[in-house]
Amino acid sequence: MSIRVKEFGKTADGRTVSIYRITNANGAYVDVLDYGCTLHSICVPDKDGNLVDVCLGYDTVAEYEANDGYLGAFIGRHANRIGKGKFTLNGIEYTLAVNNGPNHLHGGKKGYDSVVWATSVASDRLLFSYTSPDGEEGYPGNLSLSVIYSFDDDNALTLCYDAICDSDTVVNFTNHCYFNLNGAGSGTATDLLLQVHADAFTENDADCLPTGNIIPVEGTPFDFRTPKTIGRDIEADDQNLKNGSGYDHNFVLRGEGMRDVCVLSSEKTGIVCTTATTQPGIQIYTANFLTERKGKGGATYHSRDAICLETQHFPDAVHHDNFPSAILKKDEEYHQETRYTFTVTK
After folding, report:
1. For the residues of 114-175, what is the DSSP string, one character each?
2. Distance (Å, rounded) from C-alpha 195 to C-alpha 175?
């Protein structure tokens, strides 16, 4: 295992951004930016032994700053949506930025995806740290965070999130990597096979905000209990699909603790990505709102050219008592892990 670092560029306000490459014993590697703890590249072997980059991204800092979509970024203080940008905690109403229709999305107008994080390097991992001050984007409490990325010789990429706050707050972290196991920039991802270990999903309204209803997947286009292509039912006559312009929904995962929760695979490359997590939910997002744009190496990205596997607490949990709580109590330690393991089938 080796880690090397070099300058990637500078932000518009002059902050230096570095890119870190974690290479394992087999020559597979992951590139990570300290700008937003962003997964820039994930290069893993296909069925013929050739390295394939399965992670969408950009060639410059300016493109990360200019484009929406959160490609590869760490998301917080609260991933996904909070209805109307407001929540009440301990009798106090907090007002957040509204940046997604009528709702708050992915931490606000300046989320953790735009922070240049303090970084230290161990022999086999990257440690990112940041202190989010009380009142940042409207959230209460001084929140101390650490994010650890590691990549081992079994081609397993592990993301560990830790935090502690000096007052009660809300916390929901995820990573917003856009995966295409056919190769980043290769075109549509709708032919990828997906299996999700979930018997239900959270119903959305027209703004992709959960209604609070938990719907069984059986008999719906959301049934991925056995593998099927992402595109098989994506255009079905289903109001939830119409609300998200495709899949943009939280699935209620089976079990607790670190366990396998979904499997994504490509018949073209033979690459398989198995996701394991400690989180209770996963947002399956089929890049429905990814507008045409230039990506890495001159590739052009389009809608549905990737899929996001955003392990998380449920969206808008602060407004639904039947969802797992996203409240982090004062001095309570937050810890969540997600692991993406890449293998091949012949």
Report:
1. G-B-EEEE-SSEEEEEEEE-TTGGG--S-EEEEEEEEE-TT-EEEEEEEEEESS-EE-B-EE
2. 19
CA separation for the pair 300, 319 (Å, rounded) = 39
In angstroms, the CA 148 to CA 341 distance is 16
Q: Known catalytic residues?
A: 176, 310
Cβ contact 312:79 at 8 Å? yes
61: left (phi over 0), alpha (psi -120 to 50) or beta: alpha
> Which range marks the domain in which residue 85 is found?
2-344
Can you give the pLDDT at residue 230?
A: 98
What is the per-residue pLDDT across 306-324, written as a single tens digit (0 to 9) for each? 999 999 999 999 999 999 9
Write down the pLDDT at residue 1. 81
Distance CA 239, CA 225 (A): 20
> Do 315 and 202 touch, CB atoms closer than 8 A?
yes
CB atoms within 10 A of CB 7: 10
Question: What domain count does the chain have?
Answer: 1
Cα dihedral 11/122/296/268 (nearest 10): -160
Whether the pLDDT of residue 294 is over 90: the answer is yes
- Residue 49, pLDDT above cutoff 80: yes
In tens, the pLDDT along 76-131 reads 999 999 999 999 999 999 999 999 999 999 999 999 999 999 999 987 899 999 99
Q: Computed over its alpha carbons, how large is the radius of gyration of the chain?
A: 19
Tens-place pLDDT, residues 221-257:
999 999 999 999 999 999 999 999 999 999 999 999 9
What CATH code is carried by the domain that includes residue 281? Answer: 2.70.98.10
Instruction: Please name which of 299, 267, 265, 81 lies closest in space to residue 179, comparing C-alpha atoms.
Output: 265
What lies within 8 Å, CB to CB, of 49 at 6+ separation is: none
